[in-house]
Specification:
Shape: globular
Number of strands: 23
Largest sheet: 10 strands, mixed
Length: 830
């Protein structure tokens, strides 16, 4: 049987080729997810390695100690120290081409080249205090030799000449600087005289441990910590949260989707292959092969196909991981580990074997004599009552859980929505063979007068074996259901955020400080209120407030009469048309955590001077730059009495225009008024909406890139099914040719059949995806952050159009094979 299985593989390479394509693409997803997961760690380690390269010892200050020039001088005098540099990163906003401030950071150029965590890319590093070098990507809008305007932390402008660009690995969350200046020039941007870290390079022959011991004796203690360069790198790795870890999880979820789709394609392919080899298998049974031997032989073929396809998919996974990293930006890493190799090959082979197990088991059920008879296609291929019962049961579960989800809380409703979506998707897949026949006959009646005989043949072929047709469409159904669901939900979230921002922010502009630690000028609100066309302007400030026995929370202070006009979060209970002294509004989250309700009184502020605050409202608000409502809100005059520490953070000015004001003209006037506050950044509501929507759109673009591969698997399945059915219908095709059907007509029939399969799969997928999106929109929507049911017609049209246009391409290879066959040889085929 082993020799027979090998001979069978050699005799039918083309029949198994497209089956292998499906599993190869699926394994590429799995391998890509594992490679991407490893790449996240590689990118972080590379960034840390650059940051700590050449560093044999690192000195940090703790418990209020200071690292300054005095400490640095002592370090340089320690025997065994070849070089020591103080590192400090300061906020240094850039002026863009339009003159607006743009957040950036700068650091001092180390005199010792081996302690520089970057490499020169073009030009040179600064040699005097009027020169600057910039990171290569940041410098894309500037030219060497041209001036660069940088703001210090007091808003004063400093002009430098760009003399060079440098490269370093992607930031990976470690906070690397964008610009490099000489230490004296950096001192002009910041009044800070302390270093964040002192890095030390050892002289030749001095080990890191010995260097640390010597430095500890010289400057250690009194809150100063000295560790080796290796320990500093390890600590930075532990403390740096990866900003790409979520991407790996996101990709892994779609790897599972791809493998499910690939498994369906493989199962369908092996079902057709087994049906085509009925006589061959029956002959083996007649000459002594047992059921177990036949079953084992078919699984052996599956193992070989799975192993070869998995090896190809593993290589493809490297390319997929690299492509996706390029899409999201940053450095590209493709590490290949033993875990990735073993897991990819094992998953690919196991999925192929399990997918082939049911067809192989079915092949052993028929008696040898019965199998040797000429089969009549259509009876066994028809769907029966058990399938109808399963379909009805899944529909009942799906619609029942959907009804329960609509009446449940958000958390419970989300779980029930997932159950409903899975049930409806299962019902759509189970009902496929039941609806193929009626739909095919209706399509035949409608299309036959227009497209002629090829349309009739296509519908007859689709109706002949509804299980096979439905199985071919099922893979496409799953892929389009997922992408239409996420696309529609994303559009709803984006539209809901826009509406929520419009409802809750009565202001037309927000003004924030580009340096978070530097507040806006106290009189800025009054200055902006005096601008012609401005109806009102009010200061809003975030601060840490002391709510007595409840603890400290991030709160928002705003002028009392601006609440309800400039800032109007959704009120869940109580009233919030204004806030006066002694009044407190709490967010829904804070109310749930503390059980505070309207009418309760909180003794806020320090214990020796408590301030009674009465809860007047519970609200729910959306978070946006310059318009954050925090966990609680008080009148601006109440802030100093309950604040923990001095001042606040993240302050902003909310600006509302007069009803008849010209938006563009007033904006120009506001920008002129802000010339005296160079750190102020003006944003319109539309710009705030764009900032909130940008991450959603990036995620959606990545989703489409991932789903494109899953849909590719589905079309590989359609191509495979058509190719195998062409081989199965060799005699039939030859007879049609003999009766006068042209080669073009035969090819057109196959193309029409592929379009029918694609339309069936796309329609079912869009129905399930859009229906599930509607359910999620109803369940997840809140007054503060509504999720609207908005159909993104453009993207959905692209999905449907791509399915219809790709279907004829999937039929090209089968059509060429059918049309090129010899009529006489086909009629003589068994």
């Amino acid at each position: 049987m082993l020799r027979t299985a090998i001979a069978g593989l050699a005799a039918r390479p083309l029949r198994l080729l497209l089956s292998a394509v499906a599993i190869a693409v699926g394994v590429a997803f799995v391998a890509g997810s594992l490679v991407l997961s490893d790449a996240v760690g590689v990118g972080l380690r590379q960034a840390v390695a650059f940051e700590t390269r050449g560093v044999d010892a690192s000195i940090d200050a703790t418990r209020g100690a200071e690292l300054d020039d005095v400490v640095l001088s002592k370090v340089r005098q320690v025997p065994g120290v070849a070089a020591a540099e103080g590192r400090a990163t300061v906020s240094a906003p850039l002026r863009d081409a339009a003159g607006r401030p743009r957040d950036a950071a700068a650091t001092a150029l180390a005199a010792d080249e081996q302690l520089r965590p970057f490499d020169l890319a073009d030009g040179r590093f600064p040699s005097n205090t009027n020169e600057i070098a910039m990171e290569q990507d940041i410098a894309a809008d500037y030219a060497l030799g041209h001036p660069v305007t940088v703001l210090d932390q007091d808003g004063r402008q400093h002009t430098f000449t760009l003399v060079g660009t440098f490269t370093r690995p992607a930031d990976a969350g470690i906070g690397a600087s964008d610009m490099v200046l000489l230490p004296e020039a950096l001192g002009r941007l910041s009044q800070e005289e302390e270093f964040g870290e002192i890095v030390v390079r050892a002289a030749p022959g001095i080990g890191q441990q010995q260097l640390v011991a010597d430095l500890t004796r010289a400057v250690g203690g009194r809150g100063i910590s000295v560790v080796t360069g290796q320990e500093a790198a390890a600590q930075l790795l532990r403390e740096t949260p990866s900003d790409s870890a979520g991407l790996s999880k996101f990709f892994t979820a779609f790897a599972v989707l791809a493998m499910v789709v690939a498994a369906m394609v493989i199962a369908n392919s092996f079902t057709i292959l087994v049906a085509q080899r009925t006589r061959e298998l029956a002959l083996l049974r007649c000459i002594g092969a047992g059921k177990r031997q036949v079953f084992s032989g078919l699984l052996a073929e599956a193992v070989v196909v799975g192993a070869v396809a998995s090896a190809v998919g593993l290589l493809g996974g490297l390319g997929v991981a690299a492509a996706l990293q390029a899409i999201v930006g940053g450095d590209v890493h493709v590490p290949l580990t033993a875990r990735t190799v073993v897991a990819s090959l094992a998953i690919g082979v196991l999925v192929t074997v399990f997918a082939a197990a049911i067809p192989a088991w079915s092949a052993t059920r028929a008696a040898p004599v019965e199998a040797l008879r000429t089969p009549v296609e259509g009876k066994s291929a028809r769907a029966g009552r058990p399938r109808a019962a399963v379909t009805i049961a899944l529909l009942v579960v799906g619609f029942g859980t959907a009804a329960l989800a609509l009446g449940s809380e958000v958390e419970t409703g989300a779980v029930l929505s997932v159950v409903a979506m899975i049930s409806l998707l299962g019902a759509a897949l189970a009902a496929g063979p039941l609806v193929v026949g009626p739909v095919a006959r209706v399509v035949g009646v409608v299309c036959a007068p227009i497209f002629g005989q090829p349309a009739r043949l296509a519908t007859l072929n689709a109706d002949r074996n509804p299980k096979r047709t439905a199985a071919s469409a099922a893979a496409l159904t799953i892929g389009l259901a997922v992408v239409s669901l996420v696309t529609t939900v994303t559009a709803g979230v984006e539209a809901g955020r826009d509406r929520g921002l419009d409802q809750q922010l009565g202001a037309d502009f927000t003004v924030t400080s580009v340096v978070a630690t530097k507040p806006l000028p106290p009189a800025l609100a009054d200055t902006l209120a005096a601008v012609p066309g401005v109806a009102d302007a009010a200061l809003r400030q975030s601060f840490s407030g002391d709510l007595g026995k409840y603890g400290g929370y991030g709160m928002t202070a705003v002028r009392g009469d601006a609440v309800g006009s400039l800032l109007r979060p959704v009120v869940l209970s109580g009233r919030l048309d204004r806030l006066g002294p002694g009044e407190l509004a709490v967010s829904k989250q804070l109310a749930e955590e503390t059980s505070l309700a309207v009418g309760d009184t909180v003794q806020a502020g320090p214990r020796n001077r408590p301030v009674p605050l009465r809860v007047v409202a519970v609200y729910d608000g959306v978070s946006a730059a310059g318009a954050d409502t925090g966990l609680a809100m008080v009148d601006l005059g109440q802030q100093s009495a309950i604040a923990m520490g001095e001042g606040g953070y993240d302050d902003s000015v909310l600006v509302k225009l007069a009803a008849d004001a010209d938006h563009d003209q007033v904006r120009l006037a506001l920008e002129n008024a802000l010339s005296g506050a160079p750190l102020a950044q003006l944003r319109s509501v539309d710009e705030l909406k764009e900032e909130l929507s940008a991450p959603l759109r990036s995620t959606l673009d990545l989703l489409w890139a991932l789903t494109a591969l899953a849909v590719l698997i589905a079309f590989a399945g359609i191509t495979n099914t058509l190719s195998l059915s062409v081989l199965e219908r060799t005699r039939e095709s030859a007879l049609l040719r003999a009766l006068g059907l042209t080669r073009g007509g035969l090819s057109a029939a196959l193309a029409a059949e592929s379009v029918f399969v694609a339309l069936l799969g796309a329609a079912c997928g869009l129905f399930v995806g859009i229906g599930s999106a509607w359910l999620i929109a109803q369940v997840a929507s809140t007054d503060a952050e509504p999720v609207l049911f908005v159909l993104p017609w453009g993207r959905l049209g692209v999905l449907l159009g791509a399915a219809v246009l790709a279907a004829p391409l999937a039929a090209v290879i089968p059509a060429r094979r059918a049309a090129r066959g010899s009529v006489t040889a086909g009629i003589a085929a068994p």
